[in-house]
C-alpha cells in the first residue's frame, strides 16, 4: 500500500503545467513546481542543502576496532544513501513528468535533482522578457481582416495571446491595456481596467454616426420612432425603437 509520502509525488494527484518546448511558460512552470516540492518538505533537494552521502573509506592498515567502526559506518551510509536516492529520484520523476520530450534528453544523465533543476532554469531564466515582449508585439499587431464582419475570431486570438502572456509571467501595463480597447466589446471592461476614471471618460471613434444604448432609463431625452432594423457585426438583426440623448459618465 502506498504511503502518504509516496502519494505526494504522484503526478496523477497534482496538476502541474508541462514546460513548453521553447520554455514559453517557464515562469509558471518553475513557480508551481517549486511550490509543490517545497510543500512536500523537499526543497533541499533542489537548492543544494540535501547533499549526496559520502561513502566512508577504510584506511590502510586499520586494526580490528577501526574495521568494526567502518562496517557500522557503511551500514549508516547505505541507509542514508537509500533515503537520498529515493527522494532525489522521485523529484527527478516530477521533472520528467512536467517537461517536453526535448528537455528529457538534456537531463537524462544527471545524478542529482539539483543538477537537473539548475540546467532547466539556466536554459530559460533570462528569456522570459523577450518572449513576453514578443507576445505583446503580436497583440499590438492583431486586427480584424478587411471585410470580415465578425470580430469574434480575432477576439479569440487576443484571448489566447493574453493567456500565453500570463503563462510566460507577463503583466499588462497601461499601454497594453489601452491597445486592447481597439477591439473592446464592453466598455465596462475598459473601466475595470483602470484606463479611464469618473469625470475623465475617453471615447474611441468607431466611425458610426449613431450609437446604441440598451437601457431606456439612461436616456435624458427620448422619443419613440418606427422600428429601424440594425445589422450587427456578427450578422444578427435587432431593432431600434427610439432615439434621444444619453449622458456619457
UniProtKB/TrEMBL annotation:
InterPro entries: PolX-like_BBD (IPR054722)
Parts forming coiled coils: 67-94
Entry superkingdom: Eukaryota
Keyword check for Coiled coil: yes
Domain Retrovirus-related Pol polyprotein from transposon TNT 1-94-like beta-barrel: 203-248
Keywords attached to this entry: Coiled coil
Organism field: Mycena albidolilacea
Pfam family, one: Retrotran_gag_2
Designated name of the protein: Retrovirus-related Pol polyprotein from transposon TNT 1-94-like beta-barrel domain-containing protein
